[in-house]
Amino acid sequence: MLLKKTFRYYYWLSIEFVKKQLKIILLSFFLSFILIVSFISFSPYIQTIFLAKKEIIGVVGEYQFNSLPDDIISKISNGLLFINEKGEFIPTIASTWEVANGQKEYRFHIRDGLIWSDGKKFSAHDIDFQFKDVETKVLDDKTIYFRLKKPLPIFPTFLKKPILRFPLIGVAGLYRVDRIKSRYGSIVELTLSPNKKNIPFIIYKFYRTESDLINAYKLGEINQMTLSKKSFADIFQKWKNSTISKSTDYNRLLTLFFNFTSPLLKQKEVRQALNMAVDKLKFKDSGEVALSPIAPISWAYNLNQKNPVFDQFSAEKVLKKAVTASGASELNFFTYYDYLNDADIIVKALKDTGLRINLNLASSEKPDNFDLFLAFWNVPQDPDQYFFWHSTQTQGNIGGYKNVKIDKLLEDGRNTNSLAERKTYYQEFQRVVVDDMPAIFFYFPYVYTIKRK
């Protein structure tokens, strides 16, 4: 009897509780149902985000949407074509193209079915290279036309730049941009999701200095970084959970530029003597010694380059005679803070020959009153270096170098689309430029990639 009363009590208590809390119970049930369905529906994405392999890479530098490094942009999008290591044009966004009117007209046909990474349809109307002195017409959704004022057989090399739409929306890339974090106009974090299976997610985090980058790695904010200084990389030699790999950055070349308005530096024998005065083996820990302005991985590289000759005694004789004849008193040597260690080695070697050198720190892209200017410059993938050494190029040819033979070789090299002919011209270009010495080419820098295991 007591058991029956107890049961009846709890029964009516439960009924009253349900009546009072019915709305809350129904709402909880509904929300639980929604959460379970959502979890089942989105579980593949949750697994992708939290369980997929991720590379968190630290990068030094302040970048905006239009100035990101090429190796990042090339993951997000493609150009009309790609140039392989043999110098051959490989179609990417373009499927085919025709050349007409003596290499002055180019018509490119766009592949079918291309879409932007945000799902919108891609067409020829989306292409905007903004070339100077090039007439551009979109003939239809699949065809774009370029007309040049002068024939330029290597024009397609300028069409490999990845095509992007703001903000970092690409087409036919291996990755798409999922998230962008910026501060005061500069990107501080960039998340890339793969468009293909079996490649990792990538998160780029940007830091102002190499010291900030190293601290971020120590704190576990990133799991990969690339350093330019061996002394910094050596810090991680004893870290058991990290690996260090060394490689050469063939996109950059440390170079001492001459100002050809200087009567002293106009003399070829003086420039050759300056080159002989510096022992390039002193830079062997900093990078791969450069024998020409074209990288040794280029299809046009001249394998018959001579190794640099270090002869300070002969250099001193030539320089002493030339300085006395010209009346030159002092040479203004400019460089940037990051290259001061290299500059000190060079300045000491030149002073040992009797030259008077005034070392200055540059604060702008190009100092106005330099005689000698030490800086890295970006070596183009294509061997065409017209912009840097042709006498008509006032912006890229920062020293004002003039050489009729060099001009002709650079013109011939870009006025044919035959790779064999181009290779011949550029190999001769290297031979002449190393002999005439418009600048001293020191080294392609080593870089050190530190990665967590």
Automatic annotation (TrEMBL):
One of its GO terms (cellular component) is ATP-binding cassette (ABC) transporter complex. One of its GO terms (biological process) is peptide transport. Belongs to the bacterial solute-binding protein 5 family. Coiled coil: none annotated. This is Solute-binding protein family 5 domain-containing protein. The chain crosses the membrane at residues 24-46. InterPro entries: Peptide/Ni-bd (IPR030678), SBP_5 (IPR039424), SBP_5_dom (IPR000914). SUPFAM superfamilies: Periplasmic binding protein-like II. It comes from the Bacteria. GO terms for molecular function: peptide transmembrane transporter activity. CDD domains: PBP2_NikA_DppA_OppA_like. Keywords: Membrane, Signal, Transmembrane, Transmembrane helix, Transport. Pfam families: SBP_bac_5. Residues 88-395 form the Solute-binding protein family domain.
